[in-house]
Amino acid sequence: VTPAPVPTPGASAGVATLPPTSSLRVTAVVANDGNVGEHGLAVTASVQPAAGGRTSQRTASIALAPGASEAVSLGVIPIVAGRSYQLTVAVTPPAGEVPGSTTSRTFAVKVAPNSAPPPTTTTTTTAPAPPRRPADGPPPTNAPPTAPVPVGPRQAVGTITRPTTPSTTTTTPGPVAPSATVWAALRRCESGDDYGADTGNGYFGAYQFSLTTWRWLGYPGFPDQASPATQDAAAVRLETLRGWSQWPACARTLGLG
What we know:
alpha+beta; elongated
């Protein structure tokens, strides 16, 4: 399995402890001991939560000559960090060739929990407000008023008025939210507009979320098991945070920038 199990002192045989991860890649080494002719063998990997729940399966077919062996990749199976699973790999020969000769191996898989990030402490310092400035005006004085000084004839003084520049306010429109037609086109491109899509490629639901992205958005469970309204809300939030680049192929096809 990938990621590789970490050494665990005292662990019993048949128990694999994995580092924190959201997916499990299974590769099985299958050998034909000679009882089966060179026909197709069905190899199946099943992962079931130890606490009960949905079982995920991946199947591959190979043809082995008697006495030959081969490593078979069974793809990626989504899992959740901090939980335990039962992994079963079974090999079944063609129907009627060797009746009842299905061979299987079962392992207990424990996935370590994610490490919690250290808490972030923010200290806010508020600077004191500057002292209020008194209203402008002449300083007080106790001196007696002075007698008027005679002056000659006054000359007319012109008044200069400065031209004023009208203020201009420019308003930039905000981004326009994608329409329902755009989202419908994206769903058809990603999954054929199937909210329950689970094709075994590691992506789920109408918008083909990976489990890593689904958990990052804060949603539990599997995307394809969530309601259409929940999947729609998750897609809108992802586009707001990360843009259309989260759906690169369909974004190019639909001309979404």
